Inverse folding.
């Protein structure tokens, strides 16, 4: 599991992205790219890292399900993910 401080930092970035989203879009639409750099760095959407919602793991993130491969495998084995069955042949 990821450290709580890193998960909290990522949530803080998400809040800042939402806060400045309209302002960023307006500046881009007006073509005022020189004023874009005056906004906080963490207000840019590309600064956010995809993380597993359960474990906070940043690597091997499955975007379709929102979890890491490890959590996905556990949940699929338990039958908690609809439509996913273990392959057998």
């Amino acid at each position: 599991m990821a450290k709580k401080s890193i998960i909290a930092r990522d949530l803080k970035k998400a809040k800042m992205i939402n806060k400045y989203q309209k302002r960023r879009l307006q500046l881009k639409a007006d073509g005022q790219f020189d004023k874009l750099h005056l906004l906080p760095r963490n207000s840019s959407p590309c600064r956010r890292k995809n993380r597993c919602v359960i474990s906070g793991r940043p690597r091997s993130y499955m975007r379709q399900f929102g979890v890491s491969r490890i959590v996905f495998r556990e949940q699929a084995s338990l039958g908690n993910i609809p439509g996913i069955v273990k392959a057998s042949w």
Notes: The chain has three helices and two strands. The first helix runs from residue 4 to 30. The longest strand covers residues 61-62. The mean pLDDT is 91.
